[in-house]
Amino acid sequence: MSALNQKYGKLREEHNSRQKERKLLSIYDARQNRLVTDWKATALFHPLKPGYQILDNISVNDLVKYIDWTFFFLRVEAFRTIPGHSE
Hints:
single chain, 0% strand
């Protein structure tokens, strides 16, 4: 087996070991269980000032605790494990 095949085999095994077994619904059951909404009866929030707003009085340090970093770290982790990726 070539070195490349071995490398990709190892990556495949690592990926498969991180996967959890999921019980998926049939398309029929998923459609029966769909979310039904009544948008006419739902009160939607309308901003007081639509469009872009500049907030000069808020520090980035105050915003950090509200940032969901999940997707950032998932991307970094994904590229960390790809052989030959230079990002």
